[in-house]
Design goal:
Elements (H helix, E strand, L loop, with lengths): L10 H18 L7 H17 L4 H14 L8 E3 L2 E3 L3 E3 L20 E7 L12 E4 L4 E4 L8 H10 L11 E6 L10 H12 L5 E5 L14 H12 L7 E5 L5 H13 L4 E4 L13 E2 L4 E2 L6 E4 L3 H15 L5 E4 L5 H10 L3 E4 L1 H6 L3 H16 L4 H4 L9
Parallel strand pairs: 3-4, 3-15, 4-7, 7-8, 8-9, 9-10, 10-14, 14-15
Antiparallel strand pairs: 1-2, 5-6, 6-13, 11-12
Helix pairs in contact: 4-5, 5-6, 7-8, 8-9, 9-11
Length: 397
């Protein structure tokens, strides 16, 4: 028997979006002004403190009200993938909560899962600042952060301080995104990843091999099938290895995407995440970054946000053509509306992730996407979101 949450009136969560847009809209509407990285850091400091005191009586009441507005509980949105039960298909992409400081809060914001990291074995500062830039008009960002994080051991301590329930018992699925430390050579990359995995395996619902960030020299070389197979085999040697996924770049040639899809199936990976940020400027080559005075095609770093939407969809379509329903796909890149989320699901993504779009659109993006998905399920007569995955069903108004 279907259990369904009473449909929300949009006005119940629009106030949250309105508050967000009132305070952050003027900042997000311009490239310059409040520094993008400082804004993220301040937000994470606040979220970190909230996560650690979320069980305090007054804070618990406030967070419960927030969750009531932003969460959507409906059995049609649920899926079990690679042994994890997802309450809904919308997740927070890696890159925002690099050190897992707000791991205890992401379910409150309506997410069905959150991917923490990217975390490396060694603590590292990352690339020189400035390294994160808003492209306000395009609702995009350029980042060359370089895996700045406190390291795997610090992440473990941070997660334990938040008194999280064990994997499988949490209100939200938590994935950990692992990268290579900059000081580690490619020859020793497998050891580096394995050290992080060994430190964090028992507290991860799933783990992602990030070999696609453009901001660590040589990292993308690990997408070579031989290199990637060697890395997978090494990580799989860990007795308690969690479900293992790989995140790929949008800049791969189509035949390279096909080869990686076949490798993922042959090696028994648990899923593929597509896509990371792009070195392609996607028609914005002449766009000037005011803070540096340089054109986008002269700047280092990966492009994210709305301009990536088309390529992100192309890659999911291509992956689906190879793997079919044998392997779960997670779509990320340029998803900033219910329509773009549904498009990615209909193309073959079982799950989707948001980051840049969530920053620009605000916290009510998640419930808007989930409401949109449920409206499309109703229009097409799908029993659940799994039926919609790979259906090719266009958005119906």
């Amino acid at each position: 028997m279907r259990t369904r949450m009473t449909e929300k009136n949009p006005s119940q969560f629009s106030s949250i979006g309105s508050i967000y847009r009132y305070w952050f809209g003027p900042i997000l509407s311009q490239d310059q002004g409040f520094d993008a990285e400082k804004l993220s850091q301040l937000s994470l400091v606040a979220l970190s403190r909230l996560s650690q005191c979320r069980d305090w009586p007054i804070m618990s009441i406030i967070l419960s009200k927030l969750a009531n507005d932003l969460q959507r509980r409906d059995c049609r949105l649920e899926q079990v993938l690679f042994g994890c039960r997802f309450s809904n298909p919308v997740g927070l992409a890696a890159g925002f909560d690099k050190n897992g400081v707000a791991a205890g809060l992401w379910d409150v914001f309506g997410f069905g899962f959150a991917e923490l990291g990217t975390v490396t074995w060694h603590c590292q500062f990352g690339n020189p600042r400035p390294r994160l830039f808003r492209l306000a008009e395009e609702k995009a960002a350029l980042n060359r952060m370089g895996f700045n994080n406190a390291g795997a051991e610090a992440m473990r301590e941070t997660l334990f301080r938040q008194n999280l329930l064990p994997p499988g018992q949490r209100p939200i699925v938590l994935g950990l995104n692992l990268g290579k430390s900059k000081i580690t050579s490619l020859e020793l990359a497998a050891d580096d990843y394995l050290s992080s995995l060994n430190m964090l395996a028992d507290i991860a619902d799933y783990v992602v091999i990030n070999v696609s960030s453009p901001n660590t020299p040589g990292l993308r070389d690990l997408q070579d099938p031989k290199q990637l197979k060697r890395l997978i085999d090494r990580l799989r040697s860990l007795p308690n290895c969690p479900p293992l996924l790989v995140k790929i770049a949008p800049d791969l040639a189509n035949d390279e995407i096909d080869n990686l899809a076949r490798l993922a199936c042959d090696e028994g990976l648990d899923g593929v995440i597509a896509v990371n940020t792009s070195l392609d400027r996607l028609g914005l080559e002449d766009r000037v970054i005011p803070q540096t005075g340089m054109r986008l095609d002269e700047e280092a770093g990966g492009l994210s946000g709305s301009p990536l939407q088309s390529r992100g969809l192309e890659v999911i379509v291509r992956l689906r053509a190879i793997v079919g329903s044998r392997l779960p796909l997670i779509g990320v890149g340029g998803i900033d509306s219910p329509e773009s989320a549904w498009e990615r699901i209909a193309a073959g993504a079982s799950l989707i992730q948001v980051y840049t779009g969530w920053i620009f659109e605000g916290p009510d993006l998640v419930p808007r996407i989930l409401d949109g998905i449920m409206s499309q399920l109703d229009r097409y007569g799908f029993i659940n979101v799994s039926e919609a995955v790979g259906s090719g069903a266009p958005w119906k108004r």
